[in-house]
Amino acid sequence: MAKAKVKKFGAPDELRKFEKGKLQLVKFKGAAVGRAVLEPGWKWSKHVKPVAKTKSCEAAHFQYHETGVLHVKMDDGTEMDIGPGEISMLPPGHDAWVVGVEPVTLIDFQGMVDYARPSKK
Q1: Cα(89)–Cα(101) distance, rounded to whole angstroms?
Q2: CA 77, 96, 37: angle at the middle one, nearest 5?
Q3: Confidence (pLDDT) at 58
Q4: What pLDDT score does 116 carry?
Q5: Boundaries of domain holding 62
Q6: What is the CATH number of the domain that holds 20?
Q7: Would residue 37 count as lying in a domain?
Q8: Domain count of the chain?
Q9: Strand blocks (E) in 1-121
Q10: Which residue among 54, 64, 70, 87 is buried most deeply as judged by most CB within 10 Å?
Q11: pLDDT value at position 32?
Q12: Mean pLDDT by 10-residue block, N- to C-terminus, for the chain (121 residues)?
């Protein structure tokens, strides 16, 4: 019989730090949820691209935005701002950056397992 489990982002299974940001990852059998905190001035193409070594972010994201505003530019040129209380689904192929002086905090239910790691390609 399966047992119930509870985990906290304050005690994550894995913590990844990168310039102007961090990812707290909690893992359950077959699933992982990530909490990203991105500081003002953070930009994927500046702070994570050197780690991922891909043209743009190749992670698909399904995320709830808690704080701050994240500007996303898709490889096809589509742009959008995503703010507190919004839920976004982003396919691979995008750049993103923090807008303004408030940190962005988001919970990602899909794309953080390999985030801020070298690409497997």
Answers
A1: 24
A2: 165
A3: 93
A4: 76
A5: 14-108
A6: 2.60.120.10
A7: yes
A8: 1
A9: 14-18, 21-28, 31-38, 61-67, 69-74, 79-82, 87-90, 94-99, 104-108
A10: 70
A11: 93
A12: 91 95 93 96 96 92 97 98 98 97 96 73 56
